[in-house]
Amino acid sequence: MSRGRALRIAYRTRAEEYREDSFGAGYGVVSGSASQRLTLPPDADIAAMSREVTSDRIQLRIPRVDLRRSAPWFNPPEPERNAETGRSAAAPE
Length: 93
Prior knowledge:
Elements: E1 6-21, E2 24-39, E3 50-53, E4 58-61, H1 67-70
Antiparallel strand pairs: 1-2, 3-4
């Protein structure tokens, strides 16, 4: 297994309840925790990650980096053309 980038999600919950009935008073505490490790692709943009947490879910959005924008060498610019000949200025004569 390769040692790439990963994201660890961990959370804890706790609920307390106090109740009185015909048998007397009662107090209960319920708690729990969980964690999960997610492997991320190499082009994941962690800085642009967003999250939404509700009572029944955690939703993460991790966009991917556009490699053409982040690496200028990935998509080099077109060479300039000579106006008279129409040939590339970088082309051999």
